[in-house]
Amino acid sequence: MTQRLTPTAALLLVIPPLMWSGNAVVGRMVAPVISPMTLNLLRWAIAFLILLPLASRVLRANSGLWPQWKRFALLSLFSIGGYNALLYLALNTSTAINVTLVGASTPVWMLLIGRLLFKAPVSRKQLLGAVLSIGGVLLVLGRGDWQVITHLRLVPGDVYVLLASIGWAAYSWLLAHPTPESEDIRSDWSTFLMGQIVFGLGWSLAFTSGEWLLTPAHIDWSLGLAAALAFIALGPAVIAYGTWGAGVSRAGPAVAGFFINLTPLFTAVLSSIFLGEAPKLYHALAFVLIVSGIVLSSRK
User: Which of 73, 109, 139, 227 fits 199 for a cystine, CB–CB 3.0-4.6 Å?
Assistant: First the structure.
């Protein structure tokens, strides 16, 4: 298939960042009524049930998933088990806008991890782009006051989302270096996601058990919480993964990568509507710096 940005491809690529921004906003909304690890476990348990009719074949004993269990366990730790749990944990102490803006620093960590672990070359443009993106992240962390940076005190949520971003960068590099044995599973987005969910549920269950044993974990059931769980399982998980895969196949990964940076913009709009967290001037400046850095570092 020829890869180009058609209107259909653009629509497919806009859906995932909209869903992911919704995930951050909904996660912030339900933070008072459910513990973060428990929220992550329930989200992926529901996603597992949704995907089961489409991808049950990957669970069979003769599936290629089980010989690759170590790789999929690692992939799921950095994504389903770790990234999403840290994201929900971050939303307990940081705003949805801050979380997605700091998360937009992921390409910077991808450069660093690629250089250190995979010996990937880093160009001058990429270095300059990284500096711009880091500047945007520091602007968010300093809440718009550069003097705050000199005696910066991070809220726990900022630290959690930084760790999540580093983990996602490692996850992305693992995806970029697949093993030949995993190609059959990767050829179908539903089986590939299901393979990660299976092991991700194991990580999530372990983290949730620790949450209930070591912290004042809680869950206050209501129709609102049930609706939130249904949304984050169906939208940001299943639909976002499916449309992202279809969009990337049409437009190519290089073009698709820029659409991820719509997430903070959508989050700012949704946060203003549903959370009353109106974006400030420094959010806009940070967004410009982060996107400028990513665009610059990605140019040929």
Answer: 73
